Amino acid sequence: MGPRPRRIRRRTSLGRRAALAAAVAVAVIGSLVTSGAAAPAVETASTPSADDGVTPMHSSTFPLADPDTVHTGTGGFATYGTTVAAGRGARCAGAPTGKLYVPVLKHGSGNSVGFTNCASGDAMPGGPGSWAEPGGAIWAPGVTRLGDRYFMFYTASRAGSGQKCIGRAISSSAYGPFRSAGGWACPPAGRWALDANPFISGGNLYVTYRDDAIASGAETGISTVRTDSEGRAIWDTRRSVFLSTDITWDTRGTSGGTHVVENPSMWRRANGTWYLMWSGNNWDSARYSTGIAECGSTPLPSSRCRPLRGTDRPYFGYTGSGGLGPYRGLPGNHTGPGGMDVFTVPDGSHRVVWHWWDSGPRYPMNGALLLNADGYYVQ
After folding, report:
1. Which of 323, 332, 340 lies closest to 376 in space, CA to CA?
2. Model-level pTM greater than 0.90?
3. Which of 17, 217, 253, 266 is most exposed, with the fewest beta carbons within 10 Å of its own?
4. How far apart are CA 158 and CA 366, in angstroms?
């Protein structure tokens, strides 16, 4: 898939496969809780011990950008990502060898997330749907389960204009096939909507997404909205939760272009506080990084979320030369870590999945999202 304007960072991950080293670490069980899951009695804020019994951090050599992971309800996990071309990335036995609109990786069991180096199939083999450019790519699919169905929200190019918009798809299985239910959000005046990430709270489905309609010019923003039981947005519930003008590191080292805040994910801590995670700066650079903001007691806050650790540097990022001096690094300390998604394992604790940039392809990693006296960290 060829390059597109700087305004959006999504690309199909192309190029050589890189050898990745898996670091081993452990997590605190129950230190964090997802919306809708039972809260543990005590929220741990100490360094994890070596006998916590949680799967260590893992990485994959499959070139998967914009990863999103869900527990399938059948004991394992599914990780989705941006479209890959025919012949790109290893395929598991019996998997199609052609283009994968939404590559899906099957891995893990129970609370052990694990990972795999091959794609098991295409979660949306029919493509983005009639509202989008025929045969066009799908970017940054996000999936959650509501009742006995799985809802996917994904980015595609609108037919006839190329405008980046969000579509909605539904399946009875986490592995698909997902079928398009049409366009979901396509702002007026050609502004973009992308990177939708759904989550459940109090039995309701919410979606947080990059929403350029709430900003002007080169600025971008993030909105969250509640949906009905079919995943259709209830637009009068929409809240503006973040703007690129809320930070300065999104443009550090860039030479103009869009002030990028994108690929959001929201989660709830055990004490009831909601947080927002997002990516910023240029996707194809060591500077691409991840921020965290505190949003208050509801996923639809009355005012915008407040960045943690200041506005002039990211929370997570590459700590080497060319990075932005983040508050904390990530396992492996790879360049361009972003697209971070928060998900939950059966015991109620949180994990994260993200990709890193290898001067061409991007590769996924996952780990435990932990908390100590100095704040959040991943291992």
Report:
1. 340
2. no
3. 217
4. 32
